[in-house]
Amino acid sequence: AQSVSQHNHHVILSEAASLELGCNYSYGGTVNLFWYVQYPGQHLQLLLKYFSGDPLVKGIKGFEAEFIKSKFSFNLRKPSVQWSDTAEYFCAVNSNQAGTALIFGKGTTLSVSS
Amino acid sequence: GAVVSQHPSWVICKSGTSVKIECRSLDFQATTMFWYRQFPKQSLMLMATSNEGSKATYEQGVEKDKFLINHASLTLSTLTVTSAHPEDSSFYICSASSRVTNTGELFFGEGSRLTVL
Q1: pLDDT (0 to 100) of residue A51
Q2: Binary contact (A43, B109; C-beta < 8 A)
Q3: Which of A52, A103, B59, B67 to pair with B80, CA 20 to 30 A apart?
Q4: What's the Rg (C-alpha) of chain A?
């Protein structure tokens, strides 16, 4: 079955700490991979996406993610978090064929203390 | 480009009434639109997939008679929550797949928060 697993339910960090959020997927075929952020009370925003090519993807706000095909993983990283990064983070996957739905992970809540 | 707009952003209704939420792709034609539901502190769950001019395909456990989806054109899909009850209170989010880019990327609306009293 198609699924996305985010291992960390709630991560608590101090400002300037490094961040890595895990994401593993189970999905047949060639995939697209995404990370979204949702700030409290707000809508989804796309952080970064992977379609093909360089497995290290850079996104907005200093985030990056690495696609490791052999591990079916797409972990999100940021070298130094800020208080404003406090939010919910969702990993998502779909097929690279047009018109396929995104499957979301359960999300990781990141709390950053100043 | 690739903007998806939802209306209304917020809606409060009485139990038993019906509510319609619109999802429009403003600057592209959407071959397929998807409707998701997000309960507080939870992830997005796919409700249904709709293609222009066709009947929507609903995910298991989603009542098609309660959540009516119409995809009348390549830029508009509507979700009608019929006979809404408090347990239908949720954040409803639509997304669309572009006919042009054809990459599998979806573009999301800002969501519609439904509160049923």
Answers
A1: 93
A2: yes
A3: A103
A4: 14
